[in-house]
């Protein structure tokens, strides 16, 4: 099993995404609203006609995408994250928004706990693929759980993102942090998803990120190349 699927990954993620970062992320969400990838994922999921039923938010952080989708038609959410600090912040925000009954929180590496989590209509991974040394098992489990729709954002596979991530990882190494971030080959990600029976219904790019919404080929979802 690759290192991304072991207890080592969970410990590294939990240590990196600590209380300080969780409080910063929650403060930013409350004051400024969702970040660019979260906002685009929300809008593209809605535009693709997929904002209904249950969402499984993998690597939910403090919950911005979950809360945005609950406000736009999703009925229930299951939020999974390896960071105890982020889940605590997300749980508190759910209580503040009177959404406690609509959200279930699960702590752990999604690949490790996936067998205990039911399938959902929509599975989301907002800036999560880049946290895993090996993206294949993460995407494979996510696609198995996605009954209708898989939505994700990930770094663009361009030279300046490789440089930026390399510098960030060097700083973490010098500080004695074991967490690393990765720019994975986009062509392989797309091929893996399409081979699993999904087709892209929506796509956007920023200079840093790709944002994609895929639906199972059996679904009659609108394409929205916005």
Topology:
Blueprint: H1 7-16, H2 19-32, H3 36-47, E1 54-58, H4 64-70, E2 76-81, H5 84-96, E3 103-107, H6 110-113, E4 120-126, H7 135-145, E5 146-155, H8 159-174, H9 186-195, E6 198-205, E7 209-216
Parallel strand pairs: 1-2, 1-4, 2-3, 4-5
Antiparallel strand pairs: 5-7, 6-7
Describe the structure.
- This protein has 226 residues and is an alpha/beta fold.
- Helix content is 43%, strand content 22%.
- It has helices at 7-16, 19-32, 36-47, 64-70, 84-96, 110-113, 135-145, 159-174, 186-195, and strands spanning 54-58, 76-81, 103-107, 120-126, 146-155, 198-205, 209-216.
- It has a seven-stranded mixed beta sheet, sandwiched between helices.
- Helix 2 packs parallel to helix 5 (84-96) and helix 3 runs parallel beside helix 4.
- The longest helix has 16 residues, at 159-174.
- The protein is globular, with a radius of gyration of 16 Å.
- Residues 1-6 and 220-226 have low confidence and may be disordered.
What key attributes describe this structure?
disordered N terminus, Rossmann fold, 7-stranded mixed β-sheet, alpha/beta, 226 residues
Summed up, what is this model?
The protein has 226 residues and is α/β, with parallel strands linked by helices.
Which spans have pLDDT < 50 for at least 5 consecutive residues?
1-6, 220-226
CATH topology: Rossmann fold
CATH superfamily: Vaccinia Virus protein VP39
Main sheet characteristics: 7 strands, mixed
Termini distance?
Answer: 38 Å
Proportion of helical residues: 40-55%
The CATH architecture comes to 3-Layer(aba) Sandwich
Name the CATH class. Alpha Beta
Please give the order of strands in the largest beta sheet: 3-2-1-4-5-7-6
- Count of discrete domains: 1
Mean pLDDT: 92
Form type:
globular
Number of contiguous helices = 9
In terms of DSSP E residues, the strand content is 15-25%
- The radius of gyration over CA amounts to 16 Å
Given the helix and strand composition, which structural class is it?
A: alpha/beta
Total strand segments: 7
- One letter per element, helices H and strands E, the order comes to HHHEHEHEHEHEHHEE
């Amino acid at each position: 099993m690759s290192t991304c699927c072991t207890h080592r990954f969970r410990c590294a993620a939990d240590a990196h995404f600590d209380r300080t970062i969780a409080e910063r992320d929650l403060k930013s969400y409350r004051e400024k609203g969702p970040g660019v990838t979260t906002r685009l994922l929300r809008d593209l999921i809605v535009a693709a006609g997929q904002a209904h039923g249950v969402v499984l938010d993998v690597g939910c952080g403090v919950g911005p995408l979950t809360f945005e989708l609950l406000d736009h038609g999703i009925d229930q959410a299951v939020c999974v994250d390896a960071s105890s600090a982020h889940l605590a912040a997300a749980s508190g925000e759910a209580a503040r928004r009177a959404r406690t009954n609509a959200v279930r929180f699960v702590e752990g590496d999604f690949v490790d706990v996936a067998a205990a989590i039911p399938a959902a209509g929509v599975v989301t991974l907002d800036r999560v693929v880049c946290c895993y040394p090996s993206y294949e098992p993460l995407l494979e489990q996510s696609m198995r759980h996605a009954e209708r729709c898989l939505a994700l954002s990930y770094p663009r596979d361009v030279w300046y993102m490789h440089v930026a991530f390399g510098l960030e990882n060097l700083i973490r190494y010098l500080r004695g942090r074991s967490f690393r971030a990765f720019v994975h080959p986009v062509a392989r990600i797309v091929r893996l998803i399409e081979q699993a029976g999904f087709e892209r219904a929506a796509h956007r790019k920023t200079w840093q990120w790709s944002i994609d919404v895929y639906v199972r080929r059996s679904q009659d979802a609108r394409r929205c190349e916005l």
